[in-house]
Amino acid sequence: MSTPMRRSFADRDDLVAYLREQFPAAAARDAAVSPIRGGQRAARERLARLNPVRYAATRNALDGAVTGLSPYLRHGVIGLADVRDAALAAVRRAADAGKLVNELGWRDYWQRVYRQLGRGIWRDREPLKTGWPASAYAVALPDDVAQGTTGLACMDAFSQQLRDTGYLHNHARLWLAAYLVHWRRVRWQAGARWFLEHLLDGDPASNNLSWQWVASSFSSKPYWFDRENLERLSGGRFCRSCARANECPFAGDRARLAQRLFPQLPPEVPR
Amino acid sequence: MTSTIVWVHGDCLAPDGPALRAYPDAPAVFVWDDALLQRRRLSLKRIVFIYECLLELPVTIVRGNVAAEVTAFAAAHGARRVATSDSVSPGFAAIRRRLAAALTVEVLAAAPFVPPDVPLDLRRFSRYWQRAGPLALQPTPPDAP
After folding, report:
1. What is the third-level CATH fold of B4-108?
2. Contact B46/A200, CB-based, under 8 Å?
3. How far is CA A126 from the centre of its chain?
4. Over the stretch A141-164, which tens digit does the pLDDT of each residue have?
5. What is the dihedral of CA A221, A100, A84, A46, to 10 degrees?
6. Please, is B25 exposed, middle or buried when counting C-beta atoms within 10 Å of its C-beta (0-12, 13-18, 19+)?
7. B17 vs A: CB within 8 A
8. What CATH fold (topology level) applies to the domain A134-261?
């Protein structure tokens, strides 16, 4: 048996210094440490603040009342049943916890699919519904996305937050993924690998299968968005300071955007 | 001399996880999988987060090849059995098979989100949720594991 690693540290800085020394390759790639703390005590503090009603009403907004429990769920620090039980205990009628429990359901669902597919989660589940052949997509993650230097204030902020904190709001993930796959036409696997390196909640099942959902290899149509959508849910915070606000690739009429992203598909029926 | 050790892995880092709860006095081990760390290029912040979780567990932390290290840990404690918590990952299944060559492996499941053995259609989330949704909105029964 190899020598046990240290268990006793003066404080978090002491722990981080030790881990930098023990895992030099990881530290050399990116030395960032998240403000999010590991452990069940931290998870229980979040669990005690659970507000399923506010969650349901505000979860789509970047500053909405999301739970922040995903890193703990991913590593089994707490279980889906624990969070469900806490949600039910925090509401008067079970239905008031319905949206939160539904979102927990996605994790349960992806885990079940993972048990069936195993490493197959790295391959397209179904053909893409974008009109583009798989060969039209680049294999590698573009440097400007990885470094956060696209000039698009929103995407650069998401890239930076991913690398600095290991956490992104669900919509930031969806927008960054859609930008990479549909605007930059990069294979979803490149983005999935990048997310797994950084996300504290990075789980091959939830991560890869959600990328496939965006890409349309595990859904009936590609997920994409427009500026109005992003601006509204982010309170306009990125667009205000964006150097490319006047040549925003997400702006404009939805039908025309769809035509530009997916020219081979029949025109979108206006809603 | 102990007859059972606990193998703690990254899919179940709860102090009250099923294996630690079933064997509260058994020596427990966690192994950093060096090959996996390299292959996945796991960032330092992920390592710090997992390490902070480990520091709340009564577990010896080592690094190397997971199956080899767990087997050596069992031998050092004179144990022939290893208990662990379930995981759906294929990496877990492979390590479990390797451990079974030398040890008796007991895999324990956490409290389920949806009662086990309910047949569920996994083709799309909507089909799955049609059946699972109403069951998931029930609290865990008090006699659950």
Report:
1. Rossmann fold (3.40.50)
2. yes
3. 21
4. 999 999 999 999 999 999 999 999
5. 120
6. exposed
7. yes
8. DNA Cyclobutane Dipyrimidine Photolyase, subunit A; domain 3 (1.10.579)
Which residues from A are below 8 Å from B67, CB to CB? none
One DSSP character per residue, A116-156 reads: HHGGGGGS-SS--SSSS-GGGSBSSPPHHHHHT-SS-HHHH
In this prediction, residue A107 has a pLDDT band, given cuts at 50, 70 and 90, of very high
Contact yes or no for A108 and B47 at CB 8 A: no
pLDDT in tens, B31-69: 999 999 999 999 999 999 999 999 999 999 999 999 999
Residue A7 makes CB contacts below 8 A (sequence gap 6+) with B55, B61
ipTM of the complex: 0.97
* A38-119 has CATH 1.25.40.80 classification: yes
- DSSP-assigned beta bridge partners for residue B32: B63
Cβ of A85 within 8 Å of Cβ of B144? The answer is no
